[in-house]
Amino acid sequence: MEARCPRCSNVFTTDRSGIQFCPHCGQQIDVPVPPGGGWGAGAAGGSGAGRFSGEPPPGGTPGALPGGRDLTPWERRREVGVVKGFFETWKLTIASPQTFFRTVRPDVPWTEALFWAWIIHAINVVLSLPLLGLGLSTLMLPQNLPSNPNVSPEQMAAVMKVVTAAFGIGPVLGSLILYPLLAIIGAAVMHLVAMIIGAGKNGWGATMRAYCYASGPYVFSFIPCVGLLAWIYALVLRIFGMMGIQETDGFKATVSVLLPWVLLCCCGAAAALGFGSLIAGLAGAGSGSRSF
Predict the structure, then answer these.
(1) DSSP 69
(2) Any idea what the Cα angle at residue 2 is, between residues 31 and 206, rounded to 5°?
(3) Which of 114, 234, 113 is nearest to 180 (CA)?
(4) Is 221 helix (H, G, I), strand (E, B) or coil?
(5) 134-154 burial by CB neighbour count: b if 16+ within 10 A, else e?
(6) In the chain, at which end, N or C, are there fewer CB atoms within 10 A of the end residue's CB?
(7) What angle (nearest 5°) sits at the alpha carbon of residue 40, between those of residues 243 and 27?
């Protein structure tokens, strides 16, 4: 049977009425019983077979769905505890990503995964503040910077610590506030690519959950020289996430995750070349005027 979500207006296939989650927007809705009944045809192998209705199968456990999909430990935190649910989810994403993402339900509200990823980012912010505030991570000065005989190297180092704290702590704390918006934008770009290449069949909510539950490595990104490795592993986890939650192949999942970054790098390189050409032109014009 087909039902229309009153929130996003998308039509999806389901085999039962009642409270369930829209597979497109991830919001909880109440599907009414159609006139004359008739629910259950999909469960018997009709057009609704294999679709996620948001309810456990007959005789199944709460939160479980056919195919081994279940709520994550974080989504069962009222049952297992907040700390244990958070840590168990983090451990599964880091150590067993392929198994984990194959069991994540795509129909649970994506806000659950966003909340989990926000906590990951908050932990990274808290752990990075001492490095910035104590000057353990400082800005580097160019080697050919003219020196001032009245300023000692120790005084310059102290100044750089202050500058690092001022210009480092502010953006880091700002990112904590803006993280949900940045995560939504990042997942939206990834989902746009997924829809174009046919890798987004389970809807926006599934992509958002894949994006957020792949954030586990960012716990270590505050460590110097480890941040790049954490970012790379997060991209790998997003590929596993798209494969598992969106039920797509590895090629489409890889394109969905990496293509936005490739385009961003190309745009950045083009902007850098254009800026370099502008500076060279201005410098050439200046030297030409001085020759007269």
Answers:
(1) B
(2) 80
(3) 114
(4) coil
(5) ebebbeeeeeeeeeeeeeeee
(6) C
(7) 50
Domain ranges of the chain: 1-55, 81-141+163-277
191 in Cβ contact with 208 (< 8 Å):
yes
Q: CA–CA separation, 235 vs 215, rounded Å?
A: 9
243 close to 249: Cβ distance less than 8 angstroms = yes
Q: Given CA atoms 210, 232, 129, 176 in this order, what sign does their dihedral have?
A: negative
- pTM higher than 0.70 for the full model? no
> What pLDDT score does 144 carry?
43
pLDDT greater than 60 at residue 241: yes
Total length of the chain? 292
DSSP state of 30: E
Residue type, 215: S
If one counts every other C-beta atom within 10 angstroms of the C-beta of residue 109, the result is 19
pLDDT of 52 reads 41
Assess contact for 66 and 57: CB atoms under 8 A.
yes
Structure tokens at 25: 């927007």
Tens of pLDDT, residues 60-71: 455 555 557 889
